[in-house]
Amino acid sequence: MLRMPPFQVHNPATVAEAVDLRARLPESLFVAGGTDLLPNLKHWLHQPAHLVHVGGLPELCGIRRQPDGTLLLGAGTTLHELATSSAVADAPALPLAASLVAGPQHRTMGTLGGNVMLDTRCLFYNQTADWRKAVGFCLKKDGDWCHVIGSGKSCVAAQSSDTVPVLLALGARLRFETPSGPLELALADLYQKDGRFDLARDIDPRALLTTVIVPPRPPGHRSTYRKVRARAAVDYPQLGVAVVANFEGDLLAAIDIVVGAILPQPKHVDLDGATGRPLDDTAIATIAERVFKQIKPQTNVHGSPEWRRHLARVETARALRQLRDERSRAF
Ligand SMILES: Cc1cc2nc3c(=O)[nH]c(=O)nc-3n(C[C@H](O)[C@H](O)[C@H](O)COP(=O)(O)OP(=O)(O)OC[C@H]3O[C@@H](n4cnc5c(N)ncnc54)[C@H](O)[C@@H]3O)c2cc1C
Ligand code: SF4
């Protein structure tokens, strides 16, 4: 049996109270659904004296849609709600990615906020304390050496959330409440090159994520998400490919591809010059090859880097063919 370190749970009634508690209580952490944090506590990856429970806070719950199509997604929205809400149906990759997170129980408890703020993952980190001790710990926790890159300089643990590549491709922004007031930033600015996420993130670690803002989708929007994992029922991604595209008539007018579960920062692939032409088989092969060339998987999650890199090309091509075929059905 894995025992957790002792902690006291606090149940604030408002966002203001939650932020105040987190600021006042030393060694405190936010917990929402607890589906990632509690397993991490069992592995003694954190030893907080206090947990500030923000799951179910009314101000954090719900999905609102503005007249221009902007989506305001409360950080406390559960993944199940996101996966099944008709309000997000015109950004199909988002409910699809939410529906592919973990298993049904996790999606019922787990929140969008927890998914965005997910700690980075690594084969040498998400292990019991005894396991980590046996290999001499590592740079991210209690040690001074990275077993993946073989140096003591930086950590390459992977950002492994399924909704994040999609939200990045959609150009999402984040709204936080912090002890010094509200803060808004692009989601792309949240993740750092170093996987010691909570140390390297250059925002106040006591900031409470309140809202994920998704800009309106233009006419001709198509999007999808492809996930590679060992067990389809319940696993973190070994690779995630989000594709967001716009079509104008026959032409591919815009395209954003973000690959997740590779490094601490999801990779926004440079596809300059790929638009302004039909998405035929040649264009699909060219784009998939550009994805293959621009990503560099590590031995941080299950599956060899070579295999995951190859699958990035395969899954990109599958996603693009799906969008092309949806498009021809729509005309
Ligand atoms: C067996 C298993 C399989 C899983 N598979 C997947 C998977 O396939 N894909 C995937 O993406 N995830 C997976 N997860 C992880 C997890 O279920 C989801 O990422 C979920 O969205 C986490 O949300 P939560 O509310 O439970 O977060 P919590 O566990 O409560 O919190 C996670 C982190 O976010 C912080 N946090 C939470 N809410 C906020 C907030 N509003 N503001 C600031 N910080 C906040 C917490 O302090 C903590 O650091 C899996 C978990 C398990 C146990
Ligand atoms: S990438 Fe290296 S430092 Fe980071 S968790 Fe894995 S082994 Fe540790």
End-to-end span in angstroms?
57 Å
What are the distinct ligands in this entry? Answer: flavin-adenine dinucleotide, iron/sulfur cluster
CATH architecture descriptor of the domain at 59-117 and 158-214: 2-Layer Sandwich
| Count of runs of 4 or more consecutive helical residues | 11
- Strand fraction band? 15-25%
**How are helices and strands ordered from N to C?**
EHEHEEEHHHHHHEEHEEEEEEHH
Shape: globular
Mean pLDDT comes to: 95
The CATH topology of the domain at 59-117 and 158-214: Uridine Diphospho-n-acetylenolpyruvylglucosamine Reductase, domain 3
- Going by helix content, strand content and strand pairing, the class is alpha+beta
Poorly predicted regions are: none
Q: Report strand order across the widest sheet.
A: 4-5-8-6-7
